[in-house]
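Is 2'-deoxyadenosine-5'-diphosphate placement plausible here? Inputs below.
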Amino acid sequence: MNSSPQIILLTGTPGVGKTTVAALLHQKGFQVLSLNDFIISDGLYFGFDYIRESVIIDEEIVQKKLLNLFSTISGYLIIESHAAEIVPAEFVHHIIILRCAPKILRARLEQFRKYSKAKINENIQAEIMEECLIATQEIFPAEKIIQIDSSSSSPDEIAEKIISIIS
Ligand code: DAT
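Reply from A.M.:
I modeled the complex. Tokens:
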């Protein structure tokens, strides 16, 4: 099938709720891709950075594989990723950045993640410094970027907001 999917990027610092909201959107009938799962399952990385506790992504091959995938699908595709800037920009319809109050984010990361203290602090710092927002603003026009606060809305409310943005 020759097609041109419309990508909705769901991004934000780890712990803001991307996976949870993406799963709800999938339940509601949307096509969803976890970029991290895609990278791991297809081995699209050079190795593991033990200091930063994250995989070292082979961005070029990820982009090639994404373009292959995009040529086989149509309609909306929600891509959930911390590293939104890897996704070929010409397909991106909207970028949804989930945000979270640092105190709440810390509680989530301490409760649900097996991160070291250093990794938790790094993520809190990234949220305070708006790193995801700045990274997306460098690539995408302001009118495509929408921020949603995950500290004050439930995952279901956020999913519904995203659906209303798409429609
Ligand atoms: P991410 O995929 O961005 O790393 P997640 O979906 O795994 O984040 O969520 C981290 C934890 O926070 C998870 O245990 C569920 C909880 N959570 C997610 N969104 C929430 C929300 N809007 N309100 C309260 N808790 C939330």
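Short version: The mean pLDDT is 94.
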